[in-house]
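Quick log. Single chain, no ligands specified.
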Amino acid sequence: MSPKELNRVDVIRDISERRLRQKDAAELLKLSRRHIQRLVNQYRGQGPAGLVSLRRGKPSNRRYTPEFKQRVIDIFRQFYIDFGPTFANEKLREKHQLKLSTETLRQWMMAEGFWISKRQTKPKVYQPRYRRECLGELVQIDGSHHDWFEGRAEKCCLTVYIDDATGRLMTLRFSDVESTFDYMNITRQYIEEHGKPIAFYSDKHSVFRLNRGEVKTGKQMTEFGRALFELNIDLICANSSQAKGRVERANKTLQDRLIKEMRLAGIDSIEEANAWLPEFIADFNQRFARTPYSLHDAHRPLRESSSELDDIFARQRSRVLTRSLTIQYDKVVYLIEPNDANNRLIGKPIMVYDYPDGTISIKHCGQPLTYSVFDKLRTVNQAAIVDNKRLSAVLAFAKQSQEQRAESREQRAESREQRAESREQRAERKYSGTNTE
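-> predicted structure:
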C-alpha cells in the first residue's frame, strides 16, 4: 500500500470504531462524504485490502494501442531514422497526422534502439599524456573571459601563455577582447622576451583556425597563422578543451588566486594590472613551476629586426593598383603618388599593412609607396559582421555613438525652438508697430 492509502486505513478504522465522524474525516482526507461512506463499506467487507486501488498493476485506459505504436515505429524507421524525438514528433504530427507526446516517442525510440539518452551515453575517456621534454617545445595559449576586477572595472580577457614542460606562466596580459591584434601584440612580447618556441597549442578560435567559408575562397590561414608561419613557429589546434588541460587548469587557478591578489594590491584597471603582472608571474612560477625532464631550452633566438616584426605582426591585404593609381581598403580609398615608378605598377598587386596601432603602410616588394587618403565612408553598416568575442566592445562603441546622436538631436531641437521663438518675436514687433501707426 502507498503512504496515502495507509493514512486512509487509520482514518477509516477510526470511523468504523466510531471514534471519528464521517464529516470530519471528509475534511481531513479532502474527500466527499459519499466517497468516505464507500471506503467505510469496503473496509468493513474486505478489511484494509479493500482500500487498495483496483487499477493498480493494470494498463492505463489512455494507453496507445499496439497497432498505433507499430505504425509510428514503421513510419519513423522509413522516413525519420536520423531525427531526434522532438523533430520527429513535429513531422509525424504535420505530415502523418499522428498525435502523441514527445516523451512517449522518445521512450519508444529508446526501446527500439533508435535513440540513446544522455544518461546512457558513456563519457569520452581522456587519458593523461606526458609533459614535453624541455622548455619552449610546446606553449599552450588561451584567452579567459571573466570578471577579473570584481566589478571595479569592465569584464575583460586574460590571455595566458603557459609552457607545457614546466607549467611556467610565460606571459600574461589583459585586453578588452580576444582579437587577432591582441594575440599578435602578446606573441611579439613573448618572442622578444623568451625567443621563438617550437609550437603554440591553442583551441579552434577563429583567430587561429579558418572556418569553411574562408577555406573555400582559397585563403589557407588566418593572419595570426600567417605571422607564425613567417616566424617559423608551428600552430597546433586542439580538438577538445581536455587536450590543452594545462592552460585550462591554469585559468581556473588564476580566476581564484589572481583575482584575490589584485584585490589586495588595489588594482582597478587593465593598465595597472598589465604593469603589475610580471611580479605576479615571478611569484606564481616560484610556487608552482616544476623542473623539466631535459634542461635544454628549445627557444630559438629572434633574428628578425624591429621593422620586420612590425610588418609580420600587421594585418596584410593584397590589392591591385587601378589605372587611376588608387586602391581601396577597409572602406577607405587611397591615392598612390603618380610618378613613373608607380605608373609601372598599374594592374600589379601591392600589399597593405594595417599595424596594431592603427597606422597604414602600402608597399610593393618591401618598398613603401607614398599615398594620400582620398575618401572614406563616415557611417558603418549596422549589419556588419562582428566577432562574438568582440561584441562587448562593439556594443560599448554603439552606445557611445547613440548618446552622441541623441545629444546632437537635442541641440538641434533647441536651436529650432530658438529660431521659432525669434520668428514669433519679430512678428509681434511688426504687428505692434503696424497698430501704433
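The two ends are 110 Å apart (CA to CA).
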